Amino acid sequence: MKSQFKIALIFFAGTLSIILLLSISVYYFSSRYSFTDFYKRLEVRAVLAAKSQLESEEEKASAFKEMREKHLEKLTGERDYFFKINSKSNLINSAKQLEVPVQFFEEIANRGNATLKKGDLFFSGINYKGLKGNYIIIVSATNDYDTQHLLHLRNIFIIALPLTSLLALAISFLFSKRIFKLIKKITDNVKEISSENMHLRLEKTPADNDEMGELITTFNNMLDRLETSFETQNNFISNASHELSTPLTAIIGEAEVTLSKDRTSKEYTEALHIVLNEAERLDKITKSLLFLAQTGFDGKKQKMELLRADELLWDTKKTIDKMNPANQLQIDMNMVPENPEKMSINGNAQLLHLALANILSNACKYSSNKPVKVSLATTDSDVVIIVKDSGIGIPEEELKYIYDPFFRASNTRNFEGYGIGLPLSRNIIRLHKGSLEVSSTVNNGVTVQVRFPRSN
Amino acid sequence: MKKTILIPTDFCIESLNVLKQALLLDTNKELTVVLLSGQLLSDSIVDLMFYSRRKIINSLLKPSFNDAISILKNRFTTNLVDVRIELFHGLNKNAFKNFISAHKIEECYVAKHYVLKKTGNTLDVIDYIRKCNLPVYEMDWLLTQGTSEFDQLETLIS
Fold this sequence. Notes:
heterodimer, A: 456 residues, alpha+beta, Heat Shock Protein 90, five-stranded mixed sheet, four-stranded antiparallel sheet, 10 helices, B: 158 residues, alpha/beta, Rossmann fold, six-stranded mixed sheet
């Protein structure tokens, strides 16, 4: 669970930094505000002091004094200073008297007001020009109230920070655990599936309509494909052993019967003939199986050469004629291109010969030697060979199995064969980057389209 | 002898048999072929603003149809100079006559038994062809039994 821990830590670090940033900025801005606010209060007191002391009319002055005493709270250590300003030296003297830098007084004289902080003591001064002359009024006080406020705030943060961090830590662990709970569930489910129970699938609840659902669907699709190929493999083995055992049983049976008592030499010859026939059949099957296996993978590079598709077809027809003299193959050259170079393909003559011979002899066999039409044409990219027979056809629902080794369609009982030819042809055609397509309806014949890429 | 001929098409491989038969008919010609499809134009002004002949043709054209044309081109390299696909959007005889003269068409070839397939926007051009005072030749062949492109291609190349 290492990445679970990692995600929790990342999440926690993010949350913690947000909390810290927030508390620091809250503390900083509130302390800044408390300073400016305190200076404002001092300035108001300074103005009121000036008005009450230096106002020329007695009534107004007493009103200002009353206002200050009644409505304004007395600050801790609040003191007023009045300085009559006549000259520059006066400023320096006053500054010395108050033990503050002379710049403070200069600023008040120039700008009209100024603030200063000396230790715990806050100063705020104004320049007042009245009838009684030019005065600088300074009010000083300690900021006990706000210092306490900030202290309180700091205490809150000191207690709250560890608490919230703990909470964030807990939440991040819960959060990462929740994410990985789904993945752990899938892992546990997948662990249960083995070659014995390939039919099992991951459960998908309607709530899993998100990325996790997608993962589950992908897994299930992969399992589907795996199961199919597993079954094909199993079928192949059972079919192959069946095909191989049939001639073997015949051989063994024949030999046993012959050996059960003494025979004439003619009977022995007959028996040996039967044994030989079956052995030859066995040999044919194993040879074609070997070929199928060899063409099935691309590991061994075949020798490729430039071939003419029409020559290939004629050669194949010759072979078929030898094998089955009663065939009615018609090679149709109506649509071959005017320029014969356009019919050249890159390939291994022997292999292609075998592939085409398989397809053509199938067409002749399953149509009981009715006419089979073979047409050749070239498009801009491919050489197209179409073989059309009028035989028994292939049932539509069985079309998808025709490339499985040893598969034979349900209507082929009266015909001899092992079901290796077509898969072998397809392997060879694939080896040449071509395509093989079969379309058929029962009793309406089969149309096979073979395409090879043109070489130019 | 150079000639430009017109053949109506429905973008099915089967309809190309007319062209094949026309080419087999006389081997001394050099044909430029205009494959014509009548298409009703949309009423929407936006569709008309973004009208593109190429886009309409591409939406109708299937790769297998192009393959079939290339088979014919390869077979009749000397007799078949060019194959063009054109659309006709007109709604009367005069528009069709203008189309004929614009493309310098001299002869028309149509199918005798095969009926062109119709989709929602198809415009029947056979009537216009018969009324445009050009020589019209009717081609006939053994129609394909199956409906698949596979079987149609087999008919074309056999």
